[in-house]
Structures are given as C-alpha cells and as structure tokens.
C-alpha cells in the first residue's frame, strides 16, 4: 500500500507511522529522517539542504521533493510506503502526484489524524524532558514522574523545552493551518482522504486506521 499520513503537530503521526508501517510491512519514509540521512551521508541533496539550513533559510520544496523521490525509488519501497511529513503543502502534493504518475502507480489512501487544537496544546505543552540527557520524557498529565520535576530514571531535573511551550505550539499550529492543512481538501477532492480520530490509546488509533484501510 502507498499511504500518506497527515495531521497537526502532536497528533501522534510519528508513533502511528512506525506502527502502521511495521504492521503493513512497508517502509516508513519520514521527512526528518530523509534530511538527517542525506546530510550525514553528505549526498548532493544533503549538501544542498545544508547550505540553506546553515544560513537559517527554509529548504526549497524542490530539494525535499527530490529527496522523497529518491527514497521512494529504493527497492524496499517497490511494493509500497508510508509517507510521514511529506507532502507538507499543496505544491509538494502536486509534485508527488506527478512522481507516482510517471511510475504508473498511485496513492491508496491519505490518513488524516484528527485532534482538537486544545488537546494538541495539552499534549505538547505538558511534556517535560530530562535536562541531564534530553532523552527521558515525561508528561504532567499522561506520564507524570514519581517526584514532580525529577526524572524517574536518572534523577535529573525535568524541564519544559522551548519548543514545547504553549506559545511555540500555537505558532506551529498556525503554520500547519496555513501551509499543510490545505492538502486535506486536495486529497478529499481525489477521494483519498480518510479521517481517523486520534484520541485514546495508541493501539486503538492504530486499529481505527487499519479498519479504514481495509475498507
């Protein structure tokens, strides 16, 4: 199957993408992973991306499109893939259509993980990260530490990352509404969009997604 996963920040895309890709035996193609791999391997595309990023500029759509195209053409993606973070806007969605059309294939579904905005803010702004290693993560509501402000694992101080502040989350949501949300209507017009309520346990959201794909 060839699937695109969309949804606002904090909807659980990364978690669901990993589980769904493993369940369906297809590669999980994440934009973040693509950038990290190309930059660390010093590929031509990675060097192009790094040149923009080092100046604090946005990486042009075409660089992202080329990275995704290259990854989708790898042997392990011959029978399908799950795209996470791409396409990020309508221009990228149109480019993806052209890439697939040239290969004589098409998307099977676009899964939209739906979460209320206030829930997104609660999920992200409630995160607390261990200052000692920046790996252990807790949540004030969903996974609270045994002692407030202290990491259960190593005793390090827990803090709220700047990226997780409510103001930053609200700004990320504004960017999502402006740039990415329009692809929902783009795919709805193609009859590909499936809305998945993303509240509840991870396994329950996964089951809803799998049930929708079977239909």
Q: What's the helix and strand layout?
A:
Elements: E1 2-6, H1 13-24, E2 28-30, H2 31-40, H3 44-53, H4 61-72, E3 81-84, H5 90-102, E4 109-114, H6 117-125, E5 127-130, E6 137-139, E7 158-159, H7 166-180, H8 182-188, E8 193-197, H9 202-214
Parallel strand pairs: 1-3, 1-4, 2-3, 4-8
Antiparallel strand pairs: 5-6, 5-7
Helix pairs in contact: 1-9, 2-3, 2-4, 4-5, 6-7
Q: Concise description?
A:
With 215 residues, the protein is α/β, with parallel strands linked by helices. The chain is built from nine helices and eight strands.
Describe this structure in words.
With 215 residues, this protein is an alpha/beta fold. Helices cover 47% and strands 15% of the residues. It has helices at residues 13-24, 31-40, 44-53, 61-72, 90-102, 117-125, 166-180, 182-188, 202-214; strands at 2-6, 28-30, 81-84, 109-114, 127-130, 137-139, 158-159, 193-197. The strands form 2 sheets. The protein has a 5-stranded parallel β-sheet with strand order 2-3-1-4-8, sandwiched between helices. The chain is globular.
On the 0-100 scale, what is the average pLDDT? 93
Instruction: List low-confidence stretches.
Output: none
Following the backbone from N to C, one meets helices and strands in this order, namely: EHEHHHEHEHEEEHHEH
- Spatial gap, N to C terminus: 13 Å
The share of residues in helices is 40-55%
The amount of beta strand, in percent, is 5-15%
Number of helices: 9
Which structural class is indicated by helix and strand composition?
alpha/beta
Gyration radius from CA atoms, angstroms: 18 Å
Apparent shape: globular
Strand order of the largest sheet: 2-3-1-4-8
Q: Would you report the number of β strands? A: 8
Q: How can the largest sheet be summarized?
A: 5 strands, parallel
Quaternary structure state of the chains depicted: single chain
């Amino acid at each position: 199957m060839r699937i695109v996963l969309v949804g606002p920040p904090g909807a659980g895309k990364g978690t669901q993408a990993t589980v769904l890709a493993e369940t369906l035996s297809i590669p999980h193609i994440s934009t973040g992973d693509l950038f990290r791999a190309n930059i660390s391997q010093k590929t031509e595309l990675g060097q192009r991306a790094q040149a923009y990023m080092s100046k604090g500029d946005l990486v042009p759509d075409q660089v992202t499109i080329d990275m995704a195209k290259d990854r989708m053409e790898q042997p392990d993606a011959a029978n399908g893939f799950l795209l996470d973070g791409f396409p990020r806007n309508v221009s990228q969605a149109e480019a993806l259509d052209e890439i697939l059309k040239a290969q004589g294939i098409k998307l099977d579904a676009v899964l939209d993980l739906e979460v209320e905005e206030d829930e997104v803010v609660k999920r992200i702004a409630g995160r607390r990260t261990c200052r000692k290693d920046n790996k252990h993560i807790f949540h004030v509501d969903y996974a609270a530490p045994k002692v407030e402000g202290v990491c259960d694992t190593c005793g390090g101080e827990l803090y709220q990352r700047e990226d997780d502040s409510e103001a930053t989350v609200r700004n990320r949501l504004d960017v999502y509404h402006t740039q990415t949300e329009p692809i929902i209507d783009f795919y709805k017009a193609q009859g590909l969009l499936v809305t998945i309520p993303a509240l509840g346990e991870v396994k329950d959201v996964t089951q809803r997604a799998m049930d929708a794909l079977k239909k």
